[in-house]
User: What shape does this take?
Amino acid sequence: MTLKGDVAVITGASRGIGLAIAERFAAEGARLAITSRHGPTLDVAARLLERAGAQVFAMPTDVTDSVHVRRFADAVLERFGRVDILVNNAGSAKSESFLRTDRALWEEMLAVNATSTFLVTRAFLPAMLKQGGGRIVMISSISGKRGAPYIAAYSAAKHAQLGLVRSLAEEFRAKNIVVNAVCPHYVDTPMTARSIENIVQRTRRSAEDARALLGGMNPQGRLITPQEVAAKAADLRGPGMFVIAVGRQYTCTSQLAYHLRAPYDVHGRNLLGVHALQYDHWSRPEELRDRDAVVVVEADDRLTSTVTLLNEYFRSVEPSGEVVVPVGRNTVLKTKPVKFALFVARGYRPATGAARP
Assistant: This one.
């Protein structure tokens, strides 16, 4: 069980994606702190998780209210003493034509999809910093990457959420705080069921046709299951792979994304489950501390200097031998006219952070 003893906080965990993530994390041994606005549904979810053997703390919370969020965070930290993983999953979607979108709907979408993420992250981040690190996963949406008719308010809120992800990833990357966002298309959840009902009411399509319409918008040609999104969140909850890309950003990131081919996009300079940083020139090997890492280097004058830098640094902290291993030059990542060399740095992983109770 790879999460044995870790404390995972999951918002919007009473059903759908949030419950699927809680079930996945519980199966891996995590201790769970779950919340939702719907108390009775949350109780049912907590009992389900406890019957599966999980240690669960459940507390109904309005994550758009800073006072409620503060109470929840205080209760979680009093119960467990730490938080290793935060999954901001709570969200809501409503559709309306732009000219019929009033301020109430606009502010509702911003509150539940963007402001809640800000409030919950701000409440738990200090504990992560104090203990020496943590993982934050935002369950966002493809609508945070591109717009669509009738969802201006929802899409704007999800774009705001991804902006927060990118900023947090930049601000706290040196503090061992890894921030990612999963951006799925349509998922088979109660939220999507409501969207299907809206399509039926507005277009007089059958429910089956409406469901097929939404599923057809996904790359898979069907609705994604909550368990698939939970699997991606599970990929992001650990230290994972750390990538330093040295070269032109658009080339490094696009080629790396193509090579890894994960099913969902991840934002915040964190590509497809990989925590990635890009530099034109790089001279900070200490960023690889505590991490299994890949360094992608543009094959020009940067190459020799970067390899020398890595070997000098890792030999100073791991004198047992060579720790920068060339995997392949001009074979793993290719583009014209730029070519790359790929290196794996490994061998230096000292223990950090407070001991778990």
The chain has ten helices and 13 strands. The domain at 7-184+224-236 is CATH 3.40.50.720 (Rossmann fold). The longest helix spans residues 103-131. Confidence is low (pLDDT under 50) at residues 249-275, 319-357.
